[in-house]
Design goal:
Structural class: mainly alpha
Helix content: 55-70%
Radius of gyration: 22 Å
Shape: elongated
Largest sheet: none
């Protein structure tokens, strides 16, 4: 629940979604706000076109397994670059090894 607001702002910023208008006092929303957001995305041609195009771009990235494997490999490589000194189990940063 706590990450929904930041995720909504991120998706709106990337123009793949809209935030539903909320009550400023308590953060609640109503059916009118939801209906307004759905209409904007589904019925307004210009808005819909932007969202569809951006969603397709985002889908290409999310669905690219090779890209994610490369990211994971890079992460593992980076983690391994902080090697143990073999004595105390202490992690030694690369700059300390030089």
């Amino acid at each position: 629940m706590g990450d929904q607001g930041p995720n909504a702002r991120l998706m709106e910023g990337k123009k793949v979604g809209l935030q539903v208008a909320r009550n400023e006092d308590d953060g609640s929303f109503d059916r009118h706000g939801v209906a307004s957001a759905v209409r904007a995305v589904m019925l307004e041609e210009e808005t819909r076109g932007v969202f569809v195009a951006n969603a397709l771009k985002l889908q290409e990235i999310v669905a690219d397994k090779e890209l994610h494997e490369r990211y994971i490999d890079k992460l593992v490589e980076q983690l391994r670059s902080y090697t143990s000194d073999g004595i105390s189990g202490t992690v030694v940063p690369p700059e300390a090894e030089a």
